[in-house]
């Protein structure tokens, strides 16, 4: 299966933040990225955090200088995400999926990317 998920740069991530938006990042995402998108969205819908795929803009991935694949799901400008529940889910999943807020990720992992 050919993935429709595009590779993007750190500059693109910064543009999202500069627009006043955020997203969620899964560092070190391995395997098929379409499966990540489907699996994460299904989990978020089951938990009542997301209503539909429209809560997110198209996902993308970045590749660090060390070759790590980071999967990013930016929030849509108009979304119905339950951000409080998402924050709790993110903390609960920290030991397994290591999700990060895009706004924090860009600041803390900038040195992992070459432009």
Account of the 3D structure:
This protein is of the alpha+beta class and 115 residues long. It has one domain (6-106): ACT domain (Alpha-Beta Plaits, 2-Layer Sandwich), CATH 3.30.70. The protein has helices at 10-18, 33-46, 83-92, 102-108, and strands spanning 6-7, 23-27, 60-63, 69-74, 100-101. It has a 5-stranded mixed sheet with strand order 1-3-4-2-5. A hairpin with a 5-residue loop joins strand 3 and strand 4. The longest helix is centred in the middle third of the chain and has 14 residues, at 33-46. The radius of gyration is 13 Å and the shape is globular. The mean pLDDT is 94.
Strand order across the biggest sheet?
Answer: 1-3-4-2-5
Number of strands: 5
The sequence of SSEs as H and E is: EHEHEEHEH
Strand content: 15-25%
Mean pLDDT: 94
CATH architecture: 2-Layer Sandwich
The radius of gyration is 13 Å
Looking at CATH, which topology would you report? Alpha-Beta Plaits
Poorly predicted tracts of residues: none
Q: Tell me the CATH superfamily.
A: ACT domain
Give the structural class.
alpha+beta
Biggest beta sheet summary: 5 strands, mixed
Distance between the termini: 29 Å
């Amino acid at each position: 299966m050919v993935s429709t998920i595009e590779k993007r740069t750190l500059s693109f991530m910064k543009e999202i933040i500069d627009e006043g938006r955020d997203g969620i990042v899964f560092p070190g995402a391995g395997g098929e990225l379409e499966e990540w998108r489907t699996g994460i969205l299904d989990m978020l819908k089951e938990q009542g955090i997301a209503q539909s795929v429209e809560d997110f803009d198209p996902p993308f991935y970045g590749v660090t200088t060390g070759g790590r694949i980071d999967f990013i799901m930016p929030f849509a400008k108009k979304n119905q995400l339950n951000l409080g529940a998402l924050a709790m889910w993110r903390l609960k999943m920290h030991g397994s999926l290591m999700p990060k807020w895009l706004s924090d990720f860009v600041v803390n992992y900038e040195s992992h990317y070459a432009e």
